[in-house]
Model the fold of this input.
Amino acid sequence: KMALRRLGGPSAILYWRDLACKREVCHHIRGFASTPHTNETTTSPASPSSSRDLPGKTVLYRGPFLLPFRMLVRLKLLQLSGAASIVLPVALVMNGAELSTFEMLGLGALAGGTAGASGSLWYFSNRYIGQISMNASKPDQVLFSTMDFWGNRQDEDIAIRDIEPPLRDMSRAQMAHVAAQPFMHLNVLNKRQFYISMRHGDIRDRELLLKILQGPTGEEEGHKHTDSTDSESTNQE
Done:
């Protein structure tokens, strides 16, 4: 009883309990490190084959503004609920009711705006890279972490050879100019185009990231060509 009086009575206990619940919720939605969503290109986090569970993982890059962007993506659920308001007027029209031209234009604008905003958010969230990482067990692949339609994290294993290096054969001045842009395009063969922000992002391993963005050097390509030629000659023998 004395403790309740010092803390302000039962109302204070309810206050601190609500505060603890809010902090727990914020912990689950904070940043891009929450429970990832699994799809055909990634494995469950409980699986031992997941890139996040294996030792030797190296994070090369983390994108900026992940929490506000993720919240924005999830807010499109409100937009979809707003689109549900069209159901009643459409049902009335189908039952023979008449709507004015202004009402028809308003419904069309609402439907078009909702579809456009939701489609744009999904398009960009599915291409905006929140994290690039590598694992020692897969030296020829990188892991791109993006968001799905609902704002959940999804991971995709990308072969480094399939990435078109955006900084290939560029001088230092040219690379500095490209890196100063808000976003940089990353084209991947047989996949969609991705976006990263060298200007605002957190670059954790600059050397490895630059190797991917610049591509193999002439010597490395020569070694690869020699190795492939040797393997082909061995197979023929």
